[in-house]
Here is the input.
Amino acid sequence: MNITTLFLELLRFIPLLTVMGYAAYSDYKTGEVSNKVWRYIIIGGLITSLETAFFFSIPLLIINLAVIAVSVVLGFLMFKLGGGGADSKAFMTIGVSAPLFPLWSFLWPFPLPIVVLFIACVLALPALIFRNSDVPFLKRKIRFLPFMFIGLIFSLIL
Here is the structure.
């Protein structure tokens, strides 16, 4: 990995983590996330496109485009099937901004949005199961976006 690639990875993931962190906090506190937050999808998509076009091969560009398309379709389906608007926009943002695992991952090229969604579901499952218990934290309405943010962090650490 050269220094330019590392710089582009950091340029993509630091703002993505910042946007997702703010969105997760906002969703947890108020249950709503402003649509202005999701404007980052344009910047993330541009960085992903430039990085893929200049530093990788055409087959990887095709894989990136396929993952982005699947992420947008799944995010839209998530919204239409009763998921929150912020949850689906967050999923689309991850898909467009970081379609594949970062370069330091041994699973690369594996779709990052799918891994984030899987980790988020695994983390949210106990909260959903025990939400009728006497634990005050679990009596709140379960917000999925904070679990997606934690899943994003876990997937980047792996």
